[in-house]
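BUG: 3D viewer hangs when loading the predicted structure for this chain

Environment: internal workstation, default settings.
Expected: structure renders.
Actual: progress bar stalls at 90%.

Input used:
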Amino acid sequence: MANFKSLAKDTAIYGLSSIIGRFLNYLLVPLYTYKISAESGGYGVVTNLYAYTALLLVILTFGMETTFFRFANKDDEDPKLVFSTILRMVGSVALGFLALVFVFIKPLSAAMGYAEHPSYVWTLAIIVALDAFQAILFSYLRYKKQPLKFAALKLLFIFLSIGLNLLYFVVLPWLAGRGYALPAWLYNPSVGVGYVFYINLFCTAFVTLFFRREIRGILGGFDRGLMKRMLAYSWPLLLLGIAGILNQTADKILFPHIYPGEDADTQLGIYGAASKIAMIMAMITQAFRYAYEPFVFGSSKDKDSLETYSKGMRYFLVFTLLAFLAVMAYMNILRYIISPGYWAGLRVVPIVMAAEIMMGVYFNLSFWYKLTDKTLWGAVFAGIGCSVLIAVNLIFVPRYGYIACAWGGFAGYGTAMVLSYLVGQKYQKIDYKLPQLLLYVVITAALFLAIQWSNAHLGMLAALAVNTALLLLFAAYVAVKELRPLVAKLLHR
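Structure tokens produced before the viewer hung:
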């Protein structure tokens, strides 16, 4: 019980910072979509380039976040030496990456389709290098159980980013439009969407300054033998991470190259903007992961750990299904997060959210191979799932457009999830109480169809009333099923 209280407390802090941060970051979505028209394709450029950075971040961290938790919790390893060795490794790789980007910036920009804007490429290269270094520093905060500093720095980045975006996309254009003479070094309208990337760079660099104490940990030494042991553990995680992030970004990277129309950036922008509404599921999964990963590695020696993993899976699934229904129930309100010019893409939201739920389930299933050091299995599952996603995109995007991107993610995550469960039960059998989980899924599917009918056939207020009643019905059912046994146990004690 104490372990779950600790997990709940850390999840609340990490989750609060993640959810509040993502919610505040959502302010940028309407800002960008209302200030950057869908027809211009500018938001498609943002979507495409940030997909590249997500992939590069996985490559530059090469599984060292999870590796840090694994080795720092080993009895025969020195956590300080583990931290300093990893920090030096990731820092060196990041510097080498930056050197290559600046040497080959012209051909690289041309190959990515941004020959006229090489500054976009080198700016994002610096951002991703700093993010990779910060990833290890944030992992250290999680290991040291410092969720408040973790949350404060995450929120600092968000508030600073929002403030500067409002300045450059609202205030300064307003002043320029009313004849105020602004110096070119402060604001140049021709930069346009480039300010999205330059602001990100400034905010990322600024947050790095607050890690001065943690960065001193690099002085803790470097152990070549430890490095080799960690690389042996992490290289399958790298493959796993690449395949996993490709499941999230491959469609956005491939789309401009395989979509036959001349409006590829416009269509990608619509898909990217609509998908942002579905990212509430990514928030929940990320918050759960931040707290759950160190919790699992720290409690792996407990005799009741397998039962704990089963409960963690059930609680995660129930909560994400509830969140899924909440988003669907209030879609008529949430759609105003993006400009009406992007509403055509809203049909992808339930598909993307369902895919995110499967990704979260897959994350919960992944600990059997992480704790048994069989991480190669994770790379196999994710690789197969990624292959499915890419195949769906290559075959169906030219004909059906971005809706095929959404279904590709659904198919890819579903494949990886099923494979991980089937193989995992052979190596580490855990009773997840599958019939109970499937019952929750079936009930959610039925309520989803009812909500969709309500949104399509009733007025807005009537639909909201009906949907709220359906949502409360599901919440009440969950409370009876999940909380009643817990309350009975507490009363018995």
